[in-house]
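Project standup — Tuesday

K.O.: blocked on the structure for the chain from last sprint. Re-posting the sequence here as requested.
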Amino acid sequence: RLVLNYKSLPYKTHWLEFPDIAPHLQPLGIPPNTQGKPYTVPTIHLPPSPSHPDGEYIMDSKAIANALEAKYPEPPLHLDAPELGRAEELWMQLLRSLVAVFGPKVNSTLLNDRSREYIEANIHLEGKPGGDEAWESARPLLEAIGVLLKEKGGPYILGETVPNCVADV
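H.V.: unblocked you, prediction finished:
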């Protein structure tokens, strides 16, 4: 939704609980992901076009951003910025190192019973360090993110213009 808002594109949000994602998306004829979970959110339905007369469904944030940038290039997301790949990798490493810190809190405070039960049955955090150990493993990643933000004078990935790269959103 951040990219849709940034590009001032109209959209409608359809909220789904975690156990309803696959049963909702599969009947729409969306091909499953080739890695990870077969059906995921976010998913977007782009309007009809000559190459897709019924519109096109796309899953995965990065694939969605690429499709929106191709179809609606202004304002630009700067998806070709070399800093973007570095920011994405650091962000994914940071999430992996802190999942045992924030995962249980998200489950217990933000999810309803159905989604919480689904996540607890399908996402396993055993063996992942939490607490101080997780924060210590995250320290070099946070420092690297700080360095990346300062490389172009910050406070954003590509400098001072807000936002000047999709990595900032």
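K.O.: great, moving the ticket to review. The mean pLDDT is 90. The CA atoms of residues 10 and 73 lie 15 Å apart.
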